[in-house]
Amino acid sequence: MAIDTQTIIKLRQMTGAGMVDCKKALVAAEGDLDKAIEILRKNGEAKAAKKAERETNEGIITLAESDGKVAYVALKSETDFVARNEDFIAAGKELAEKLLTVSEEEFKTLAETKIKNELVVKIGENIQLGDYGVVSDKVVGAYLHSNKKVAAIVTLSAGTKDVAVDVGMQIVAMSPEYLKPENVPAEVVDKEKEIATEQLKKEGKPAEIIEKIIGGKITKYYQEACLTKQMFIKDDKVSVEDYVKSAADGAEITSFIKIEL
Protein backbone atom coordinates (compact mmCIF):
# COMPACT_ATOMS: atom_id res chain seq x y z
CA MET A 1 0.00 0.00 0.00
CA ALA A 2 1.33 3.43 -0.97
CA ILE A 3 1.53 5.93 1.90
CA ASP A 4 1.79 9.61 1.10
CA THR A 5 4.62 11.63 2.62
CA GLN A 6 2.32 14.04 4.45
CA THR A 7 0.72 11.20 6.41
CA ILE A 8 4.17 9.88 7.36
CA ILE A 9 5.20 13.36 8.51
CA LYS A 10 1.98 13.73 10.50
CA LEU A 11 2.60 10.44 12.30
CA ARG A 12 6.19 11.44 12.99
CA GLN A 13 5.00 14.73 14.52
CA MET A 14 2.46 12.86 16.65
CA THR A 15 4.89 10.22 17.96
CA GLY A 16 8.43 11.45 17.42
CA ALA A 17 9.33 8.12 15.79
CA GLY A 18 11.66 7.96 12.78
CA MET A 19 10.36 8.39 9.24
CA VAL A 20 11.16 4.81 8.26
CA ASP A 21 9.42 3.40 11.35
CA CYS A 22 6.41 5.63 10.69
CA LYS A 23 6.12 4.44 7.11
CA LYS A 24 6.38 0.78 8.14
CA ALA A 25 3.71 1.27 10.81
CA LEU A 26 1.36 3.02 8.38
CA VAL A 27 1.80 0.27 5.79
CA ALA A 28 1.04 -2.38 8.43
CA ALA A 29 -1.98 -0.36 9.60
CA GLU A 30 -3.18 0.19 6.02
CA GLY A 31 -2.99 3.95 6.48
CA ASP A 32 -4.95 4.10 9.77
CA LEU A 33 -3.17 6.62 12.01
CA ASP A 34 -4.58 5.26 15.28
CA LYS A 35 -3.55 1.72 14.42
CA ALA A 36 -0.13 2.98 13.30
CA ILE A 37 0.37 4.68 16.66
CA GLU A 38 -0.55 1.44 18.43
CA ILE A 39 1.93 -0.47 16.28
CA LEU A 40 4.68 2.02 17.08
CA ARG A 41 3.94 1.71 20.79
CA LYS A 42 4.11 -2.07 20.61
CA ASN A 43 7.36 -1.78 18.68
CA GLY A 44 8.57 0.57 21.38
CA GLU A 45 7.97 -2.12 23.97
CA ALA A 46 9.95 -4.57 21.84
CA LYS A 47 12.77 -2.07 21.39
CA ALA A 48 12.79 -1.33 25.11
CA ALA A 49 13.07 -5.04 25.92
CA LYS A 50 15.93 -5.51 23.45
CA LYS A 51 17.81 -2.48 24.73
CA ALA A 52 17.12 -3.02 28.43
CA GLU A 53 20.37 -4.92 28.98
CA ARG A 54 22.50 -2.05 27.71
CA GLU A 55 24.21 0.02 30.39
CA THR A 56 22.78 3.46 31.14
CA ASN A 57 25.70 5.41 32.56
CA GLU A 58 24.65 8.83 31.26
CA GLY A 59 21.54 10.96 31.70
CA ILE A 60 20.24 13.95 33.60
CA ILE A 61 18.67 14.95 36.88
CA THR A 62 15.68 17.27 36.74
CA LEU A 63 14.02 19.23 39.53
CA ALA A 64 10.59 20.79 39.94
CA GLU A 65 9.47 23.03 42.81
CA SER A 66 6.08 24.09 44.16
CA ASP A 67 4.66 25.20 47.52
CA GLY A 68 7.52 24.11 49.74
CA LYS A 69 8.17 20.88 47.83
CA VAL A 70 10.99 19.82 45.52
CA ALA A 71 10.64 16.80 43.24
CA TYR A 72 13.71 15.18 41.71
CA VAL A 73 13.90 12.67 38.87
CA ALA A 74 16.97 11.00 37.41
CA LEU A 75 16.51 9.89 33.81
CA LYS A 76 19.25 7.58 32.56
CA SER A 77 20.50 7.06 29.01
CA GLU A 78 23.25 5.15 27.25
CA THR A 79 25.05 8.17 25.83
CA ASP A 80 25.74 11.77 26.71
CA PHE A 81 24.52 12.71 23.23
CA VAL A 82 21.00 11.58 24.18
CA ALA A 83 21.31 13.21 27.61
CA ARG A 84 21.67 16.54 25.75
CA ASN A 85 18.72 15.81 23.43
CA GLU A 86 15.93 18.39 23.76
CA ASP A 87 13.20 15.75 23.84
CA PHE A 88 15.03 13.84 26.56
CA ILE A 89 15.51 16.98 28.68
CA ALA A 90 11.88 18.04 28.19
CA ALA A 91 10.69 14.57 29.23
CA GLY A 92 12.77 14.73 32.40
CA LYS A 93 11.32 18.10 33.32
CA GLU A 94 7.79 16.92 32.57
CA LEU A 95 8.28 13.87 34.80
CA ALA A 96 9.61 15.96 37.70
CA GLU A 97 6.63 18.29 37.47
CA LYS A 98 4.27 15.30 37.37
CA LEU A 99 5.86 13.86 40.49
CA LEU A 100 4.73 16.93 42.43
CA THR A 101 1.09 16.03 41.77
CA VAL A 102 0.86 12.23 42.18
CA SER A 103 1.99 9.55 44.62
CA GLU A 104 5.39 7.96 44.10
CA GLU A 105 3.74 4.60 43.34
CA GLU A 106 1.55 6.14 40.63
CA PHE A 107 4.48 8.11 39.30
CA LYS A 108 6.64 5.01 38.83
CA THR A 109 3.99 3.36 36.69
CA LEU A 110 3.28 6.36 34.47
CA ALA A 111 6.97 7.26 34.13
CA GLU A 112 8.01 3.78 33.03
CA THR A 113 5.10 3.66 30.60
CA LYS A 114 6.09 7.01 29.08
CA ILE A 115 9.70 5.92 28.76
CA LYS A 116 8.79 2.63 27.07
CA ASN A 117 6.04 3.89 24.78
CA GLU A 118 7.37 7.32 23.88
CA LEU A 119 11.04 7.98 24.63
CA VAL A 120 12.49 4.68 23.47
CA VAL A 121 10.44 4.92 20.25
CA LYS A 122 11.48 8.50 19.65
CA ILE A 123 15.12 8.35 20.71
CA GLY A 124 16.13 4.73 20.12
CA GLU A 125 18.32 4.08 23.15
CA ASN A 126 17.90 2.18 26.39
CA ILE A 127 16.37 4.76 28.74
CA GLN A 128 15.70 4.00 32.37
CA LEU A 129 14.08 5.73 35.31
CA GLY A 130 16.66 6.37 38.03
CA ASP A 131 16.19 7.79 41.52
CA TYR A 132 13.16 9.95 42.20
CA GLY A 133 11.34 11.44 45.16
CA VAL A 134 9.82 14.50 46.77
CA VAL A 135 11.26 16.53 49.65
CA SER A 136 9.11 18.96 51.60
CA ASP A 137 9.58 21.06 54.73
CA LYS A 138 9.16 24.54 56.14
CA VAL A 139 12.16 25.74 54.13
CA VAL A 140 13.50 23.67 51.26
CA GLY A 141 15.98 24.54 48.53
CA ALA A 142 17.68 22.63 45.74
CA TYR A 143 20.87 23.07 43.75
CA LEU A 144 21.48 21.40 40.40
CA HIS A 145 25.00 21.41 38.96
CA SER A 146 25.35 22.79 35.44
CA ASN A 147 26.16 19.29 34.12
CA LYS A 148 22.71 18.12 35.34
CA LYS A 149 24.32 14.97 36.74
CA VAL A 150 24.47 15.87 40.43
CA ALA A 151 22.08 17.77 42.68
CA ALA A 152 21.36 18.37 46.35
CA ILE A 153 18.20 19.21 48.27
CA VAL A 154 18.36 20.84 51.71
CA THR A 155 15.77 21.55 54.38
CA LEU A 156 16.12 24.19 57.10
CA SER A 157 14.27 24.85 60.34
CA ALA A 158 13.89 28.51 59.33
CA GLY A 159 15.33 31.09 56.95
CA THR A 160 15.04 31.33 53.19
CA LYS A 161 15.26 29.14 50.14
CA ASP A 162 18.39 31.01 49.01
CA VAL A 163 20.28 29.90 52.11
CA ALA A 164 19.21 26.30 51.49
CA VAL A 165 20.40 26.58 47.88
CA ASP A 166 23.81 27.80 49.09
CA VAL A 167 24.08 24.76 51.31
CA GLY A 168 23.06 22.58 48.37
CA MET A 169 25.96 23.99 46.40
CA GLN A 170 28.24 23.09 49.31
CA ILE A 171 26.99 19.49 49.27
CA VAL A 172 27.52 19.10 45.52
CA ALA A 173 31.04 20.51 45.80
CA MET A 174 32.23 18.84 49.01
CA SER A 175 30.19 15.60 49.25
CA PRO A 176 29.60 15.34 53.00
CA GLU A 177 28.65 11.87 54.23
CA TYR A 178 26.73 12.97 57.34
CA LEU A 179 24.76 15.97 58.56
CA LYS A 180 26.56 16.41 61.90
CA PRO A 181 28.99 14.52 64.17
CA GLU A 182 26.27 12.79 66.19
CA ASN A 183 25.05 11.17 62.96
CA VAL A 184 28.35 9.37 62.41
CA PRO A 185 28.03 5.70 63.52
CA ALA A 186 30.20 4.77 66.49
CA GLU A 187 31.92 2.01 64.53
CA VAL A 188 33.01 4.56 61.90
CA VAL A 189 34.53 6.81 64.56
CA ASP A 190 36.25 3.80 66.16
CA LYS A 191 37.73 2.80 62.81
CA GLU A 192 39.05 6.33 62.23
CA LYS A 193 40.65 6.26 65.70
CA GLU A 194 42.18 2.87 64.98
CA ILE A 195 43.67 4.01 61.67
CA ALA A 196 45.02 7.23 63.19
CA THR A 197 46.51 5.34 66.15
CA GLU A 198 48.36 2.92 63.89
CA GLN A 199 49.73 5.78 61.79
CA LEU A 200 51.00 7.61 64.88
CA LYS A 201 52.57 4.44 66.31
CA LYS A 202 54.49 3.96 63.07
CA GLU A 203 55.73 7.53 63.45
CA GLY A 204 57.10 6.60 66.88
CA LYS A 205 54.76 8.78 68.92
CA PRO A 206 54.46 7.79 72.63
CA ALA A 207 51.07 6.54 73.90
CA GLU A 208 50.29 9.63 76.00
CA ILE A 209 50.90 11.90 73.01
CA ILE A 210 48.87 9.68 70.70
CA GLU A 211 45.83 10.00 72.96
CA LYS A 212 45.98 13.79 72.74
CA ILE A 213 46.52 13.82 68.99
CA ILE A 214 43.61 11.43 68.33
CA GLY A 215 41.09 14.04 69.48
CA GLY A 216 42.38 16.48 66.89
CA LYS A 217 42.32 13.79 64.19
CA ILE A 218 38.65 13.05 64.88
CA THR A 219 37.80 16.74 64.83
CA LYS A 220 39.45 17.00 61.42
CA TYR A 221 37.50 13.96 60.24
CA TYR A 222 34.24 15.61 61.30
CA GLN A 223 35.23 18.76 59.40
CA GLU A 224 35.55 16.70 56.24
CA ALA A 225 32.70 14.21 56.63
CA CYS A 226 29.98 16.26 58.37
CA LEU A 227 28.14 18.99 56.49
CA THR A 228 27.67 21.29 59.49
CA LYS A 229 31.39 21.19 60.36
CA GLN A 230 32.73 21.76 56.85
CA MET A 231 34.12 25.17 56.05
CA PHE A 232 31.71 27.09 53.86
CA ILE A 233 32.87 27.22 50.23
CA LYS A 234 31.76 30.84 49.83
CA ASP A 235 33.59 31.95 52.99
CA ASP A 236 36.21 29.56 54.32
CA LYS A 237 36.46 31.48 57.60
CA VAL A 238 33.12 30.11 58.82
CA SER A 239 31.59 26.66 59.04
CA VAL A 240 28.43 25.75 57.17
CA GLU A 241 26.64 25.50 60.50
CA ASP A 242 27.65 29.05 61.49
CA TYR A 243 26.81 30.43 58.05
CA VAL A 244 23.27 29.08 58.26
CA LYS A 245 22.79 30.41 61.79
CA SER A 246 23.97 33.89 60.85
CA ALA A 247 22.16 34.04 57.51
CA ALA A 248 18.87 32.60 58.73
CA ASP A 249 18.28 33.90 62.25
CA GLY A 250 19.68 30.94 64.14
CA ALA A 251 18.29 28.30 61.79
CA GLU A 252 19.59 24.76 61.56
CA ILE A 253 19.95 22.33 58.68
CA THR A 254 17.39 19.60 59.31
CA SER A 255 18.18 17.27 56.40
CA PHE A 256 19.92 16.90 53.07
CA ILE A 257 20.14 14.47 50.20
CA LYS A 258 22.58 14.30 47.32
CA ILE A 259 21.44 12.82 44.02
CA GLU A 260 24.00 11.57 41.52
CA LEU A 261 23.88 9.62 38.27
From TrEMBL:
InterPro entries: EF-Ts_dimer_sf, Transl_elong_EFTs/EF1B, Transl_elong_EFTs/EF1B_dimer, Transl_elong_Ts_CS, UBA-like_sf. Keywords: Cytoplasm, Elongation factor, Protein biosynthesis. Residues 79-82 are annotated as: Involved in Mg(2+) ion dislocation from EF-Tu. The keyword Metal-binding does not apply. PANTHER family: ELONGATION FACTOR TS, ELONGATION FACTOR TS, MITOCHONDRIAL. Belongs to the EF-Ts family. This is Elongation factor Ts. It comes from Candidatus Falkowbacteria bacterium CG10_big_fil_rev_8_21_14_0_10_39_11.
